[in-house]
Amino acid sequence: MRKLSLLLLPLIVACASHNAAQDANTVQVSAHPQILIVQRSSMPVAAQHVEGGLPVKYAMRVDNPTGEPITLTHITMQTVGGGAYTLNPNSQPFNKVIEPGATATVEFWMPAYVTYDTVSGSNGPVTVRAQVRFKTAAGSFEETTVQQVGADMNVR
After folding, report:
1. What angle do CA 154, 112, 134 make, to 5 degrees?
2. pLDDT at position 94, please?
3. 3-class SS of residue 3
4. Could you tell me which residues come within 8 angstroms of residue 98 by beta carbon, excluding any fewer than 6 positions away?
5. Over the stretch 44-56, which tens digit does the pLDDT of each residue have?
6. Residue 41 near residue 112, CB atoms below 8 Å
7. Which of 110, 124, 120 shows the shortest CA–CA distance to 54?
8. Which segments of the chain are extended strands (E)?
């Protein structure tokens, strides 16, 4: 047992030092941005049950409740679970400054893949996981959100 613990010790130390180095550039925020994701595009009725690739347009609204400007720098999004289509992990860079107490919206396209026909077709709901990266004067931070979106769920 002692030999096993001696073998694991370097691994534990390496993991601990890796996490400390990774967290050195990350700041803690007192108030977290509120994020809403909306699917903006939909497939025409004639193509709702087509299988294959299609571009999907999204809008992301970010509310900045902090007392300082934050800059949206990166969005990585993918679907989780089943749904009308699949988004493989895909990233979009941004450089959108959001002033204190303000709201900003960015729009972007992601490639979606309809792998099988569902009752609601390609316009049905999906659950997306978005990792949203921000930077401030003090450093950077990341917010993760999981939301359900779909062409029939658009909020204007």
Report:
1. 70
2. 98
3. helix
4. 33, 62, 64, 69, 70, 71, 72, 104
5. 665 666 666 788 8
6. no
7. 110
8. 34-39, 52-63, 70-80, 86-87, 90-98, 103-114, 126-136, 139-149
Query: Is residue 112 within 8 Å of 78, Cβ to Cβ?
Result: no
126's tokens: 């999906």
Judge whether residue 2 has pLDDT over 60. no
Residue 138 φ/ψ, nearest 5 degrees: -85, -15
Structure token pair of residue 78: 């993918």
Q: What's the half-sphere exposure (Cβ side, CA atoms, 13 Å) at 14?
A: 5
Radius of gyration of the chain (CA): 20
Q: Which ranges in the chain belong to alpha helices (H)?
A: 2-23
pLDDT digits (tens, 9 = 90+) for 135-153: 999 999 999 999 999 876 6
